[in-house]
Amino acid sequence: MALEPDALAEILGRLLPNTRRRLRVVCRHWRHIVDMRTATDLRKRRIKTIVATAETAFVYEDLSAAGRPRELWTCAMAAGFKGMTMLGTCNGLICLCDDREPGGAITLANPVTGGTLPIPPLPSSSYAGGNRKWHRTYNFTYHPSTGRYKIVHVPQNLDRVLVFTLGEASWRDVPTVYRGARCDLDAGIVSADGYMYLAVEGADARVVSFDLDQENFTSIGPLPAILSRQGSWGLTEVHGRLGIAFTYVSQNLVKTDVWVMEGVPGDPKWSCWYILQVRRLPLQAASSRWCHQRHCLAGPHFAHGGKHVLTLGASNFVFSHVPSGNTRKARHGVVEINAGNQGRVIVNNAGQNNHSAITKTFCYIETVEQLSVYKCW
Questions:
Q1: Which of 36, 48, 66, 122 is least crowded, fewest Cβ atoms below 10 Å from its Cβ?
Q2: Helical ranges in the chain per DSSP H
């Protein structure tokens, strides 16, 4: 006998948001009640900013405020995670990779509850030995419709990918249609709105999407026309959408245009959302500490709070900027960096050892979701 809608809504409303998401798949009636009668969108919570290295991780409640950040981890968690690289955050859960272990050991953690969940290692046949930057080959994802978390391992040879779904016991092989192709790991791997995106090596720019529900690949095209120019580019996530950051040099100006996909992978439409312009100084005029010639967009999330752009500068400094209101050139404005305008320093990593040189920035919300419910191995 089916529950009355009011009674079911009352029961579901007492559950954690992520639990309600998973219950959407029970049947059409439950999906309707969850969507229409309960609040399941954690993105409506206040979004914070994480700046992480292999040594430390700080949380910024508000980039507009002058207050000091707080440590993300408790002392015990920080000791256990030292030397690991943060891969990503989904709904308050954080994924880390230990490059010191063969294949890269993956651990999930919830800083609020203190819970951790080591993920089973990759099958030994899936990787070669040796010291590698394994963190570059993983992506931690969440599908908003199914409520499923997945960790995807992308070998450089794109014959297949490996997928681990939280709540399952082992990794699964998923074949691709790109046999013989190679993933361009330098361009990055990002996920947004139910898809994972990666670049394929080759003379021409090529980006493909991986549907996290159906688990199939699709080529994205056309890409922004600017990619045909001389320069470098990489993938980024911008306010929940796929972005392509294209950087090129023009006289004494280093310019990065961020183009964001507003359509779907099969029918993309691109718009320029941000522009970063770095005015270069002659070498003799540049301070070794504040040398702004090396400013680049932070990643994988550089846009925070709707009005802040984060960049990485010399000595692993992290800067915050507020774009100008020049929306004719870019929808969300232009960031201009020059000798008199370096931005506001929010993190000073100078003096840390080389292993901590990987500085990443993430959007983050807090949750009390328990990781233990996902362990079934």
A1: 66
A2: 5-13, 17-23, 28-37, 75-81
Determine which helix (DSSP H) or strand (DSSP E) holds 232, and give its type and residue range: strand 232-238
Residue 282, token pair as written in the block:
């002659």
Which DSSP letter does residue 148 get?
-
Query: How far apart (Å, rounded) are the C-alpha atoms in residues 305 and 365?
Result: 12
| CB 173, CB 152: distance < 8 Å | no
Q: Tell me: the pLDDT tens digits for 21-53?
A: 778 778 878 877 776 666 555 555 689 999 998
Question: What is the token pair recorded at 292?
Answer: 């702004």
Residue 19 makes CB contacts below 8 A (sequence gap 6+) with: 369
Q: Express as a percent the part of the chain with pLDDT over 70.
A: 88
DSSP H or E stretch at residue 48: strand 48-52
Q: Is the pLDDT of residue 356 over 60?
A: no
335 neighbors 321 (Cβ within 8 angstroms) = yes
**Helix 28-37 and helix 5-13, axial crossing angle in degrees, nearest 10:** 60
Enumerate long-range contacts of 247-250, CB under 8 Å, 24 or more apart.
247/296
Q: Which of 292, 349, 278, 354 is nearest to 318 (CA)?
A: 349
Dihedrals phi, psi of 252, to nearest 5 degrees: -100, 25
Q: Which residues pair with 166 in a beta bridge?
A: 168
* Cβ count within 10 A of residue 324: 13
Distance CA 260, CA 367 (A): 29
Q: Is the pTM of this model over 0.90?
A: no
> Any idea which residue has 């951790």 for tokens?
116
334-337 vs 270-279, strand pairing mode: parallel
CB 53 within 8 A of CB 349: yes
Per DSSP, 194 falls in state T
More confident residue, 265 or 281: 265
Q: Which two tokens stand for residue 179?
A: 């046999």
Position 354 scores a pLDDT of 47
Query: How much of the chain is in helix, strand and coil states, percent to nearest 5?
Result: 20, 40, 45
Distance CA 51, CA 69 (A): 10
123 prior amide bond cis, ω within 30: no
The verdict on whether omega for the bond into residue 222 sits within 30 degrees of 0, i.e. cis, is: yes
* Cβ-contact 296, 312 below 8 angstroms: yes
